[in-house]
């Protein structure tokens, strides 16, 4: 099967990291296609960029010409998964939800450790709407901007592992979710520092997407995610995208 | 003061209706500027169009050249208010929240009557995130598409008033909110049919926006709605918008 | 229009302060009538006095001989708003709810800073019943009794501003509500100390009451707030009040 | 021990009924003292009368000259229990809470069947504040005014038993609470009609008050229910009460 | 009446302590029968032992040959009360729920102080399912294993009283529940240290069981706790138990 | 890898059905080992049998002599998963939670259709404790006892499909979970009748268990699910089991 793994920002190196993580988790026979949005910001750290990413991810998937079996939206706490579910017949998996859903099988409560403090409310909102907040002990920020993860990996590892340790000790989290698509690769260090299972959202999403496809399950079209009704559009999509 | 009232769809006649309703409510000295998004769908009835509207409303407001004192997002249950709050220093009021917030001063519980069934989950989500769902008795759909409100107003009035009556009788709503920016003008008929107060979101939002400006209050910039950080954008905004 | 602004305690100087704040916020053409309860305690700092204030406010409004367009109950976290809504045909606005409702348009979460620790549970209960607790980050007490606000304003300002800063820093509040009818006038100092918007309940209530009147909206009489049924009363109201 | 059982309305025959029910349940050695409020309405069916009853019950208990060991507030869904807890050193038990608390030991969910529809929101609010709403399947109204219970007992029995049956069948209640102080005596008929345990609040409250006294437990005075602080009162209490 | 008070572990000295506490609280005429499970662990400190205790308590009660009027399950936060309710026609009272239910009549919020940290989640889950968690300020662990309560009572008293004080000061608990069947006897020391009412679950359960019997109330059999349907059992009960 | 799939009742034919469903879903290279509890009831339809099954499943897994990589508890709404997590180092997946967790990726809300009405509360409780109840539209009973599924499959299919249709139409479920380990095989008929995705818990659990193993994730041992502490046991395990 072929799974599209769509980054939410336009930084190609981050798309590459995400793609490698997805590929490392994928079953034999699964082809991972990493995609970078056709437009948008080089990092998504707030609502404006996240709303832009939402529509960019949708248009990027719509512009993809080959057949595919599932889509993973690889941004943590971003808007837009519901729109993808309307547009597509194949399963759509958001990494925020995949990580939380997986964490819940591993311990009584989980925490998310993300990048900047301003990302915390977005993640909290997504978890609340997804019905996955009850067992969330906390969403914590390491204080590192997204792109810093690539610029200074050693400092990133340290900051994130320390924040994860606080989640375990102070908030009584029993599992930690790495709250950014680009944090793949930090898992080991955080496990070592905290002694609890650490969930990477991209890996979790790959297994869930594969499982849904394998069971022949896809998005319910009966109501919320029915296909969009026919519309007239003004100035959309932009000429450059078509 | 000047208040921008931004429609979420590209149907100019609906922008006009919304603008008239806002003007009818505005205080002397308030100038209402109705805006139609620079791009997007002619009606917003689902997540794809709503996500597109979110970013379209933001870009439309950013492209507005004159000074203004507040912005009203005049779509019911649509995405994007958080992004506007990041981008702007002036107050932002969403009509979904304005209507609910006003209804709560009038009765113990309120219902929303909207257009299509598929809009119900979007409205429920917005109310939940806004912390305004506890006293919401129900969100009900009349079954009418958005543009039908203009095409056959008499049938619209009847369908909406009947649904509102069911909300009052079956769900024990004590107040009814008209769940669509384009429903201004139906108020009287629904009051007559149900005997309960009926809140129009556009009118409610105008009074709230004016009040915030008058009290010198605007969006807190300390965390969630801090201005976006500097970014590099790919292919955005589209040339046609600049 | 004429709005009655009813203090909950019998300290006339506090009624005066509240009335001045209301007048400063009112639109041209709005007459503010400050009222002191005909009976009750000189400060309300607990359930006994609050229950007494509830009925005192109701009887005081009933004894007011002139016509009026709205009533504001100017006590923070006090009982009784529901009774006023039964008795009156005009809108009733409680300042606890007005402040919270306004704060929710300004930031993702708000805190209330009140006087004594024992007032905290009353405020929490009112917010819970009003469906306004979800986005409440905390209700904090400065430790100052109500009348101390007048006796030593400088100390009051300092204590309240410090507590507000703790709400912002520790509880992540993005907006602060001043949790006492007599705190009008402290707004500026708290803004300066915290850097977040500060909402005064009396001012917020005046704008909401005016808005409801302007939109022709008033309390739903269909169920919870239907007028009291005819009764026989024993020894009530007391001769001195009639 | 001596337990004061305070009616919330001024109808002496109802006080008598309540007193008889309490006496029938009391242990040997417990003296039940039924009290009628010194002022107030002959039936309490809404917020105005309930707020008046709250303060009337408090003043009536304060005016009681003999020592006593506990107080029962025998009104369903009425305001004021918190004030009594501040004023007194002995345990205070509200029948609304006593019934719900007892019902929770008997089945997974319970319903309350009360008098008029307008009493429903008051009861719901009391249960919510008491943290006893999670297992409440419904609060239902029989449509009978309070005083009708005495005027036409046969019709009352029938109406209440039918409503109780609906709670069991439609709302899946496993226990029924009789939602009015004056419904003592209907228990048997409702058991017969529904086949589920039926809890009378007055009886439940007597056993709880006795138990607290027996265990030497009384209201915590550390914070919420600390004694009122010293105050100056205007025109209170009325001369006629002193 | 005769009440079975069933310990959840097989330590006879602890059964004796529990029995003495129950007897000290029981009314004249109530016979307390302390029972030790026929099988199971000498202390219950986790889910495996708790699930084993659940079935052991049920089989032990079923094997009891004499008539009885009520059963108390004297383990804090343990599984199994629902099964007893199915099997028996007489009332069943769990001490976790009895303590919480009683505490709610004494203060606005309560905390539980238990033994080991790993018991905390079990207690939290039981309170959540029982609908008694809303007013629970915290469940805290003293860090002492169950059997240590008997081995070094002086150290136990000190550790538990200190933790209780933290609950009152940091979590704002107004009442403390002793979170272990074997903590009877510590009440006085904790009251002295904290100044708040302290509830012993065994004592509370005895009064509630007696009250239910006195009022002629028992478990609703209409649905959740209907008697088990006829079954074929494999290898159960073990020969040694029959 | 080897996954133990443990039935909760002692009906071997049902263990066989469950095992076949698991095998049909398993990846190449996964060995499914179906297990029947060493003791217990031939069907589990209530709390007594469910508590017995909890401990029986644990002892059966402990008695299994070969190595294994994960365990699936294949009972819907049964007790005991937490105990398995304590006892084992490998992942444990409950089918109730697996089904709900999977359903949440497919639609905005899901319903469970189970056997007898008395199973509904057990399932609701498990979902609540698992933090998976927010998006649960309803748990509905078809009225069929567990063993009837095998005795009259045609009637079972019809009853379950009809109840599923009611969940979709009346409760607005967008996905249906088959609420019994033995319902595997009914999927197709329910999809056909309702038009929504239908999730089988056994299949879902197999994919989740495989995924956890593949990602190297297992139960957090830091607190709630730490291994049992050393204990002395009385009369356990029964001689016949050892």
From TrEMBL, chains A, B, C, D, E, F:
EC number(s) on file: 5.1.99.5
Pfam families named among the record's database cross-references: Asp_Glu_race
Reaction catalyzed: D-5-benzylhydantoin = L-5-benzylhydantoin; a D-5-monosubstituted hydantoin = a L-5-monosubstituted hydantoin
GO molecular function: amino-acid racemase activity; hydantoin racemase activity
Top EC class of this enzyme: isomerase
Top-level lineage group: Bacteria
Family named by the database record: Belongs to the HyuE racemase family.
Protein's recorded name: Hydantoin racemase
Lineage: Bacteria, Bacillati, Actinomycetota, Actinomycetes, Kitasatosporales
């Amino acid at each position: 099967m072929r799974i599209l793994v769509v980054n939410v920002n336009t930084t190609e190196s981050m798309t590459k990291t995400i793609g490698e993580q997805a590929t490392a988790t994928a079953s034999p026979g699964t082809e991972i296609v990493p995609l970078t949005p056709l437009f948008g910001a080089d990092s998504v750290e707030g609502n404006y960029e996240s709303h832009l990413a939402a529509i960019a991810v949708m248009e990027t998937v719509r512009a993809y010409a080959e057949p595919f079996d599932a889509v993973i939206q690889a941004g943590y706490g971003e808007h837009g998964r519901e729109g993808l579910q309307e547009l597509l017949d194949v399963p759509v998996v958001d990494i925020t939800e995949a990580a939380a859903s997986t964490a819940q099988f591993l311990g009584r409560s989980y925490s998310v450790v993300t990048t900047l403090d301003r990302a915390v409310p977005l993640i909290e909102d997504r978890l609340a709407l997804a019905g996955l907040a009850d067992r969330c002990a906390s969403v914590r920020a390491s204080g590192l901007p997204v792109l810093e993860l690539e610029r200074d990996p050693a400092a990133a590892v340290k900051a994130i592992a320390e924040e994860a340790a606080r989640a375990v000790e102070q908030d009584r989290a029993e599992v930690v979710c790495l709250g950014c698509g680009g944090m793949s690769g930090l898992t080991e260090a955080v496990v070592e520092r905290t002694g609890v299972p650490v969930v990477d959202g991209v890996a979790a999403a790959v297994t869930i997407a594969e499982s849904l496809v394998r069971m022949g399950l896809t998005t319910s079209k009966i109501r919320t995610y029915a296909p969009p009704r026919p519309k007239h559009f003004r100035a959309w999509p932009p000429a450059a995208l078509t």
